[in-house]
Structures are given as C-alpha cells and as structure tokens.
Amino acid sequence: YSVAKPERVTIKIYNVLGKEIATLVDEFKEPGVYSVRFDASQLSSGIYFYRLQSESYNAVRKMILQK
Question: What number is the average pLDDT over the span 8-16?
C-alpha cells in the first residue's frame, strides 16, 4: 500500500461475521510505499475481509484463503 501524506494507517482482518481477527498495521506512517505480511496459518480456509483505513482513505476488500 502507499501513503501520500503523513497519517495514521490501520489494516485489520475480519471474518464473514464481522469479527476482527487480526490487526496488521495500526501506526503513523510517513509518505512512501509499504508492504505487510499476513500469517494466516492459524486460520481456516474461507472468505475474509481486510479494511485499510487512514484519514484520507477507507476501503474494504474481500480475500479468499485456501489451504
């Protein structure tokens, strides 16, 4: 993901019921391009959602975990 201006960024993972499973990022970021690694070894296969949120951007996307 990329950050255009200094701001707080959060990335969270949710299950299909809306329960928060993990917080991958929750910190202030300077402008730049970042990546994050998600260890899903403890989760079962299925559909999950991730939410990327900052002061200027908010998005929820679906992901499928296959083992």
Answer: 97
